[in-house]
Amino acid sequence: MTKALFVASAILLCQVSLVLCDDNGRAVTPQMGWRDWNQYQCNINQSVMEKTFELLVARTRMVNGTAMSLAELGYNDAGLDDCWQLCGKYGPNNYTYHQYSGEPVPDTTKFPDMKAMTDKAHGLSPPISVGFYSNNCDCKDHCSGPECFAGDVNFTLAMGYDSIKLDGCGKEEDVLVWSTLFNYSLRMKGGKTAGGLPGIMIENCHNGLYNGSHRINTPYYDTKGELVCPFHMYRSSTDIRPVFGSILVNLNTVPALAEQRLSVPGCWAYPDMLEVGITNMQGKMDCGADGKQACVPLSVTESRTHFGAWCIVSSPLILGMDLTDQATVSMHWDTISNQEAIDVNQDWAGFSGSMYMQSTSSTQFRPCGWWMEQCSFPTTQYWYKPLSGRDTRGSKMAVFLMNNGDSQNSLTLNLQDIPGMKDVKSCQVFDIWGKQDKGVVQGSTTYQVMSRDSMFLKLHGCQ
User: Fold this and answer.
1) pLDDT recorded at residue 5
2) How far apart are CA 258 and CA 382, in angstroms?
3) Burial group, residue 2, by CB count within 10 angstroms (0-12, 13-18, 19+)
4) Fewest beta carbons within 10 Å, which of 49, 125, 131, 414?
C-alpha cells in the first residue's frame, strides 16, 4: 500500500469510529514523567537524554526511610521535545525538516542513534518509556500532505518511541489523522509499542482542526453524549513560564474544563509542564514591581504550591529540571517525592478537581507568562477533589488552600463550603505537606498561610 492510500484508509477508519480512536488503555491516570523543554530548549542531545534515563531509575534518595527512584514514584516516562531535527530545505517543495518522501530528518550530530537511545530506556529497571515530538516549532514545516503524516508516524514507531507530543506550529494539524495512523499502525504490528505499552499515548499541544463548531484540540461530547477525545492529554493553556503569575494563568484554565467533565481518565486537561526546579530563566529582565528586574527561579514554597495545584486538578505531572543538578533536586525532593500529594493526583472518584471558592480581593503579578506583561488573581483560592477512599485512612476528599498574596493570610476551611459536603459536621484532617494528622475539624478551622504557600489536606472519617 502506498503512503497516500495508507493515510486515506486511516482517515476513513477514523470517520467510522471517531470516539474510539484513542481508547487504547493509556493514561488511565494522569501521566507522570519528565520532558526536556523547560530547562534545555534547543540545547538537548542524546547524551543528556540517556543520562536523564539513568537518573530517573537511580535509587539515590530516601522516601519515608526507603531508597526510591523517581521512576518508582511514578515518573517513568522521558520525553524529547523540539530541536531534534536538522533544519534545512529538502526536495522541490523546500520542506524544512522532511525529505520529499515525508520522512523526517534528525540531527545526527545531536542524536547519532535514536533507536539505541530508546532501547537504553526500555532496558533499564524499571523500564522508562520514551516520548517523541512532532509538528515542530523550530523550523516549522509547511508540509501538510499524507507523505509527512505517514513519514512521521513510521519514524516515531521505527525509533521505538512510546508516546508523542503534537505541537501546533507546523501544518500537520489534523490530530484525528495522527491518532488513527498511530493506532492502526500498531494494530498491524501486534498492538504494543517498543516499550511494551498498549498503544501510543498522544499529548495534544494545540494541534487540531475545526470540526464544525468544535476545535479538536479540546475534547467535547457529541450529540449522543459520547466523549470525542482522540488524544490522552491536551493543553488547556498557553506555554508556561517559571514565574508565579504564569502558574496562576495556566492553572486557572482548568476549572471550566473540569466542570464540563472534559478532564477524565484517558483524556486529561493539562496546564503544561511543571516549572519545579527550572533554573533556565532565558535571561529575562521583566520581573519585579517595575518589570525591569532579572527573573529568578520559583522558590521552594512557590514550587510546592505549583506542584500541589497540579495534583489537585489531576494534571499530568511532567518534571523538567536538570536531574544532574543535585543541589536543585535536593531542594525540591520533598515536594516531588510526596507520595500523599501524588496519591491525590492519581486517585479517581468521578471528578478531576476544581476550584470551589476564592476571595474578592486580588493580587497583581508581573510578568504572567512569555507574552503577558501583568495580571491579577484572587489573593486566596480554595480547590477540592473527591477521593475514592483507597488510602489507609479511607480519605474521601482533598482540599487545597492557596495564598497567592504578597503577605501571610488567614484561610478558613469550612467543611460545608466544599461541594458534596453541605451536611458534613466534622472530619479528621491529614496535612499532606506536614505529613501529619491535624486532628478533628468541627465545622471549620482557620490556618495561617504564608505568602505563595498552601495547605494541602486530606479529609477522612467525615460525619
Assistant:
1) 38
2) 15
3) exposed
4) 125
